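Need residues for this backbone.
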């Protein structure tokens, strides 16, 4: 997740006929820390919900089992490509 913000305002009708507006705001301060989500920060009922996503990681190097599967897959694809096509005699 790259640092940045997303702001998505919206409007809605509250039961009872009152009009309100709000929005969702998403902020990622840097790649590895946390994200903040605020909701309903509008004119009727301002409230804030904060969700912290700690220790988000996206490993750049595959696990050893992933390496084995990738190498085996490339080997099978290479073997299939090198295999000679059967020549069928035409009658």
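Answer:
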């Amino acid at each position: 997740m790259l640092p940045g913000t997303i702001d998505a305002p919206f409007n809605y009708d509250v039961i009872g006929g009152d009009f309100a507006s709000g929005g969702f705001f998403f902020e990622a301060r840097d790649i590895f820390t946390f994200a903040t989500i605020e909701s309903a920060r509008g004119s009727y009922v301002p409230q804030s919900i904060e969700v912290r996503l700690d220790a988000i990681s996206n490993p750049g190097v595959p696990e050893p089992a992933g390496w084995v599967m990738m190498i085996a897959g490339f080997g099978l694809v290479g073997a299939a490509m090198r295999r000679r096509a059967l020549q069928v005699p035409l009658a």
